[in-house]
Amino acid sequence: MKQAGIIIEAEHGRVKETSLGVITLAGRTAESLAALVMDGITHEITDQLAEYGIHTIVDLALSDTPEIRLNPAVRAAAVLHAARKMNLDRILGLSSPEGKDLLPRVAALLDAPLVMDCVDVDLNTGVAETSQYSGKVMAQIQLTGETLIFGVRPNAVPPEPRPVQAKTVALSGSEAVPENITLLSWDDGDSEGRPSLVEADIIIAGGRGLKNKDNFSLIVDCAEKLNAAPGASRVAVDEGWVPYALQVGQTGEKVSPQVYIACGISGSIQHFAGMKTAKMIIAVNKDENAAIMANCDYQVPGDLFDILPEIMKQL
Amino acid sequence: MQIYVCVKHVPDSAANIHIVDNLKIDESVPFLLNPYDEHAVTESVALKNQVPGSEIIAVCLGRKDAESTVRSALAMGADRGLLVETEKMCDSMTTARALHAAIVRDGQADIILTGKESIDSEGMQTQFRIGALFGFPVVTNAVSLDIKNGKATVTCELAGGRTRTFDLTLPCVIGAGRGLNTPIYPTFPDVVKSRKKSIETLTLPELNVPAAPGSTKIVAMTPLVQKRNPQKITGSPSAQAAEIIRILRQEAKVLS
After folding, report:
1. How do residues B212-247 score in pLDDT, each as one tens digit?
2. Residue A140 is nearest to which of B131, B220, B237, comparing CB atoms?
3. Do A127 and A117 form a contact (C-beta atoms < 8 A)?
4. Is the distance from CB of A297 to CB of B230 less than 8 angstroms?
5. Nearest residue of A to residue B176 by CA position?
6. Would you say residue A53 has pLDDT above 60?
């Protein structure tokens, strides 16, 4: 193995905790770690990266023009440029919403093997562990090739400090604006300040038991109090109570929070496929025979319309 | 417009999966069209309605019995099918090469649609590899698509309500997300009609599919077993809420 590069995700001038987790995972089997930073470096980012074990910080500072900086083809080309210049033969990033768009693009450009949503990776042997078949199976996958790429599930590994001396390298000329894909507009939604579904420590999700769209505000309000991300079962999405972006499950987001609070969700196989790797599951349900009540850590038999307001009152 | 839609034959999401020899699954479970691909097929039908004279070709790599999945796409409105038949488990690098070769042999794509991921291997990458092999632009998790004046305007969802809208020149590759449309559920006459539509069967050697420079290969499989022993939190709603908050603070340590 030559050198491993980690694509860093940052927000508000800090490296995301989930990205620090990727560094920790890579540091278990790689001696030399490079961080690829695309959206500008702050002192805080430099300090964080050195604190968690990065030897080389690669500044790929992309254009300030959002149409260029947010274009996924530009971002993929920048990573490709860094991989070549820095002689990277292992590339890691998050299986976050951004990563699901970026990592496969990089893999396709490099014609390199990729495994997404890894919960463990050995960079020396090139073996990754990931879930398959709607989360029912854990598979160990051997990657073979010149450059190996891994998407790591957010929250799969808690970050652990491993301080080292870090140097910063600037790589210019990594922007290639393609003619065939133009970013017209972007909308960052109304989730400002709220943790995203795939990265939140706590998710509080609602299902059929919420009964209607108006009642779903109870989940959103409770999420705000808990600094949690609101989630939903497929039923809540199909009924039009919440947008698809909130759906947790096999055909929604796959999440691994510290705590998943399922409210009025029966717990279908498809829902479990999206949240079964939560460290702790708390199920609030009037129906004690619901599947989720037998498949959680804490079952709370009762009416969510009584219990959630009490949680908010007591916080 | 020549519309190619790539579909995958996957185990029913509700099926119980059993592992054989710690390496593969017992395939004697129902298989069907990958759920995300249903959105891709549905969108291809909408495009055909928008551009009369278009043809939809469903392309699949899989075992012989994957024909039933191609047939499902035909029942939903695809005009004909191409099945690249193989008994091998192919990774996304080989799959993309096979789909690319089958499409190149068949005609000239104006647009290629796929699901954003498959629910078996959950790899999320075949659409990007097909795009790279053709040199076409790619987007994934598309939730709206409009084709006008030789361009595709596509809105893609990231998460949490965040979206990006792109203009792509045609030809292009689009990975369909769940928000794109409501899948067509074929009627019985549609199913009967689909039996008369043609499915051409091809093989990897016949297509001269080149070897990929790398690979991914499953070396071990284990069932993801839940080891949860539920404890009941009883009492008044107030007492239950207090206990939940205590657990979040003291056990999970996610609340200060």
Report:
1. 999 999 999 999 876 789 999 999 999 999 999 999
2. B220
3. no
4. yes
5. A251
6. yes
Question: Which residue among B11, B93, B128 sits closest to A133, beta carbon to beta carbon?
Answer: B11
Contact A183 B93 (CB under 8 A): no
d(CA B243, CA B150): 60
Of the partner residues B143, B232, B241, the one whose CB lies closest to the CB of residue A311? B241
Residues in B touching A145 (Cβ below 8 Å): 213-215
Judge: B124–A104 Cβ closer than 8 Å, yes or no: yes
Residue B160, sorted as left (phi over 0), alpha (psi -120 to 50) or beta, turns out to be left
Cβ distance of A194 and B160 shorter than 8 Å: yes
Instruction: Report the distance separating Cα A271 and Cα A251, nearest Å.
Output: 9
Residue A310: Cβ within 10 Å count: 19
User: For residue B141, what are its two tokens?
Assistant: 């998790």
DSSP string, chain A: --EEEEE--EETTEE-HHHHHHHHHHHTT-S-EEEEE-S---HHHHHHHHHTT-SEEEE----S-HHHHT-HHHHHHHHHHHHHHTTEEEEEEE-SHHHHHHHHHHHHHHT--EEEEEEEEETTTTEEEEEETTTTEEEEEEEESSSEEEEEPTTSS---------EEEE--S-----SSEEEEEEE-TT-TTSPPTTT-SEEEEE-GGG-STGGGHHHHHHHHHHT-EEEE-HHHHHTTSS-GGGBBSTTSB----SEEEEES----HHHHHHHTT-SEEEEEES-TTSGGGGSSSEEEES-HHHHHHHHHHH-
Q: pLDDT (tens digit, 9 = 90+) per residue, A283-298?
A: 999 999 999 999 999 9
What are the tens digits of pLDDT across the range A167-181?
999 997 666 678 999
Contacting residues of A for B129, CB less than 8 Å apart: 104, 107-108, 111
* d(C-alpha B179, C-alpha B155), whole Å: 10
pTM of the model: 0.91
Interface test with A, best of B16, B24, B122 (most A CBs within 10 A): B122
CA distance B106 to chain A (A): 23
| CA–CA min distance A73, chain B (Å) | 8
The alpha-carbon gap from A199 to the nearest alpha carbon of chain B, in Å, equals: 11
Please compute, for residue A120, the number of CA atoms within 13 A of its CA located in the half-sphere on the CB side.
Answer: 9
Chain B residue nearest residue A226, CA to CA: B255
Are A137 and B25 an interchain contact pair (Cβ–Cβ within 8 Å)?
yes
